[in-house]
Design a protein that fits this description.
Blueprint lengths: L1 H16 L5 H74 L10 H13 L10 H8 L9 H39 L6 H9 L1 H9 L4 H24 L9
Helix pairs in contact: 1-2, 2-3, 2-7, 2-8, 5-7, 5-8
């Protein structure tokens, strides 16, 4: 519609410029047509910008609501990771305290086997990064108009998740060293007695004591959980769920 108006008044402008009217009359018509053209173009640009802005904010809404689900899933997973580490700390401490001169028997042997199998396990956060990385790579993060929320999201994904990964990486490195040691130590005797000798050896005890989770990992996990919760609260505030109306 705006394009048609511009074309119409451009034609009128040319007509006014070539008309047989006096100079003053032609000048008034030319100025009027130019004002109308400028106004039409400005309106067209404004409507286009408004439509583009609405489209961008619709994308932001979809992104943030999806990010909320990602964070909730990640925090559920992180709670399981933290619970695993608390349980692991207890088991590693118990194994490190075993007396090499008193091999387990009966029910104690069964308990030792359970703890030994647990030594092979690990658990760490695998954050859902796809949605965030996709929105970032598309250059759309700055479309989030809430600057505080944007800063929180960037801080979480660019700093706090990597920091937690570093702490987890340190623990997993020690875990791998323990596993490699056990593979070598039990290569010729993988019985309960052989496993017990390996874990209660001098090197086995050193490696077990190193498996106690660093306080830093717990601190970073707690910080990440708090920040994720704050982001979810901000998203809920920006896009509250509609209240169901009873029929």
């Amino acid at each position: 519609m705006a394009e048609q108006e511009v074309a119409k008044h451009t034609k009128n402008l040319l007509g006014a410029a070539t008309s047989a009217h006096g100079f003053a009359h032609k000048l008034r018509e030319i100025v009027l047509e130019m004002v109308i053209i400028v106004f039409a173009v400005s309106i067209s640009i404004w409507f286009h910008s408004l439509g583009e802005h609405r489209h961008e904010q619709a994308q932001v809404r979809t992104f943030l609501l999806g990010l909320k689900k990602d964070l909730q899933s990640d925090m559920d997973q992180l709670a399981e990771v933290v619970a695993f580490h608390h349980k692991a700390d207890q088991r590693y401490a118990a194994l490190a305290a075993l007396d090499p001169a008193q091999p387990p028997a009966g029910a104690e042997a069964a308990k030792f086997e359970q703890d030994y199998q647990f030594v092979r396990m690990n658990n760490f956060l695998v954050a859902r990064l796809g949605r965030y990385e996709g929105f970032k790579s598309a250059g759309k993060l700055t479309n989030i108009e809430n600057d505080q929320l944007l800063d929180q999201i960037i801080a979480l994904y660019e700093y706090d998740v990597p920091k937690l990964n570093l702490s987890s990486g340190g623990w997993l490195s020690d875990h791998r060293k323990l596993g490699e040691f056990l593979d070598q130590a039990t290569a010729e005797d993988d019985s309960t007695a052989g496993r017990y000798r390996a874990l209660t050896s001098k090197k086995g005890k050193i490696l077990l004591r190193k498996m106690v989770t660093y306080p830093q990992l717990y601190e970073r996990a707690a910080k990440l959980q708090l920040e994720a919760k704050a982001i979810v609260v901000a998203i809920d505030k920006a896009y509250p769920e509609p209240v169901a109306v009873p029929r």
